[in-house]
Amino acid sequence: MKKLLTCLCSLVLLLGIAVGCAPQTPPDDTGNDPGGEEVIDRTKLATIAPTIYDVDEIVTAEETEAGDVQSWQAEVFTANGGNNDMPTKNAVIKSPWHTLNINGTDVPVYTARCGKSSHSFAWVDIVDHQDDFILEVKLTMHRTYAQCVVLPESRGVTPQIDGKEILSYIKAYGSFTYTFTSDATANVTDPTMTPLTIMVTKEEKLEIPVGYDVQYIEPGYHETNELEFTEEGMYYVFKPGLHEISSVRVPADSVVWLERGAYLKCTDRLNDNGSHNTTTAIHMEDVENPQVLGRGLLDMGEVLGGDGKYKHVVNASRCQSPVVKGLTIINANTWTMCFYNCDDALMENNMLLAYRTYSDGLMMSECRNSVGRYNFVRTGDDAVEFKGTGWGGIAEGSNCLYEYNDCWTDKGSAYCLTWESACNMTNMTFRNNSVGFAQPTWSGGNNALDCRLGTDVESRWGDVVFKDIEIYHVISPNVIITQMSGVGAVLDNILFENITVKSTELGTFAYTMTSSGNGTITNIQIKNYNFCGKLITTADMDNPALIKFEGTAKREELTIS
Predict the structure, then answer these.
(1) What is the pLDDT of residues 421-479, one digit of tens each?
(2) Quick one: which of 375, 407, 378 has its CA closest to 174?
(3) Cβ contact 408:376 at 8 Å
(4) Domain layout of the chain by residue ranges
(5) pLDDT of 396 strictly over 80
(6) N or C: which end of the chain has fewer CB within 10 A?
(7) 40-202: which CATH number, 1.20.1250.20, 2.60.350.10, 3.40.630.70, 2.60.120.10?
C-alpha cells in the first residue's frame, strides 16, 4: 500500500509539472506564499471584532412562522408583484446561505428581505493594524456558483472559487458586496442570488469625555415615553441585547451610543387617548451636536408602512452638527434617514436594507455644508437623494456632498435630486459613489442618476455635480435623466463627469432629457461618459437609441465632451 501511495503521489507531481503547475512553495518568514496568485503579507492580518446580535429575535428561516426561507421571503410580496407594507415579524434571520470566517474569527451573517428576494449582511470592526490591514475572507456557500464578483469592482477584491469555498482579501474600509451567478458565461452576476454585503469599519471604543455623564440602558421593554431623553451633556448607552422601543430623543450635546449587538425593535403604540403614537423612532429637533453612534441595529419590521404609516425612522430637523454613524436599519416603513434644514450634518458608515413603499434611504432636504459618506443603501424607493421639502422650514440648501457610498435599487432611483423642490438648492455633489444594480420597476422616471423637479413652485436647483461614479448593471429605462415637471422651476448647470456603466438591459438609454410645464432645464454637461464600453460623444446626440429628448426639452442645452 505504501509503495502504491508513493507511486500515485509521484504521478500527481509529474502531471502537475506536465501541465505547467509548479509545486507549492512554502511560506517565507513573514507568512507570505510566493507560489500563490496573490502574495499576502500575513503580518498585516488584523484582529477583528464582529457585530453579533445575541437575541432570541433572530432565528433560522425554519424557526420562523413561515417555516422556510422561500415562504419567509414571500411574506413581503403581494399577489400583483408589489411589496407588502404591513408589519411583519422576523425582519432579520440567520443567513441560510453563508458561513463566514475572517482572519480566523467566525463572523455571523444575517439576512433581511428586499424588494427583490433578500440581502445578507455582516459587519466587522478593525481592532489593530487600523491604518494598514488585510482581511482574509473565507466564505462557504450553501451551493456552488460559477462566478463571484465583489462590488464595487474598482476596489479590486478578486475572489477565488473552489467548489463551495470562496477566498478573497479585503484591504480597505467600506462595503464589499459579494454577488453570484450560476452561469459561467454571464457578463454580470444575478442580484437575486444570495448577495452578501460585508461592512468594514475602524473600531471606535466607548470613551466618556470629561464633563459628560453616562446613563446605561439595559435590554428589555421600554415604555412609550421612557426614552424621550431631555438631559443634555449625556451619553445614553444602550447595552447589547433586545430593546423594544417606541422612540428615542437625542438631546443637545449628547450621544446615543448603541453598543455592538444592541438590537432596537420599534413597534406601533397607542397613546392614552387611543390615538397612534407618531413620534419618530430616533429623532433630533432644534438642538446642537446630537449624535447617534456605535454599532447597533434598528428594526422597523413591525411598524406599519405605506400610506397608513404612523412612525418615521431617523430624523434630524433644524439641528447644528447632527451625526448618525454606524447604524444598521432594517425594513424601514418610510423615509429612512432624513435631515431637514440642518447645518454641518454627517451620515457615515450606515447600512440600510428595506423593501417597503416610500422607504427612501439617505435624504438631505434644504441642508447646508453636510455630508453623507461610506454608507451602503438598498431600499424599496430612492436610495440617496437631495430634496427641498420645506418641512424643516423654508430655507436654501447649499454645499452638500454624498461620497464613497454604495447602493442598489429595487424600485426607485439610485443617486438623485428628486421631486420635492419647494426650496432653492445649490452646490450639490455626488462623487466617488457606486451603483450595484439599478433595477427600478415603478416608472420610466426612476433611474440610476436623476435630476427630477416636480413641485409646482418657483425654485432653482443648480450647480450640481455627478462625478466618478461606477455603475455595474442598469435595468432601468435610463442611466441618466434630467426632468422638469414643475411650474416655474429651474434646473441649471448640471455636470455628469467620469461616469462608467458596465452593462445594461437592452433598450436602456444612456441619457434622457424630458420637460413639461413652464419650468426650464439649462446647461447640462456630460464629460467622459463610458456607456457599456463606448465613450459617449457629440455624435451620439443624433442616435435615438442612446440619447432621447421629450416634451419641450431643448437639445441645445446639452453639451457632450
Answers:
(1) 788 889 999 999 999 999 876 656 678 999 988 766 778 889 999 999 999 999 988 99
(2) 375
(3) no
(4) 40-202, 386-392+405-561
(5) yes
(6) N
(7) 2.60.350.10
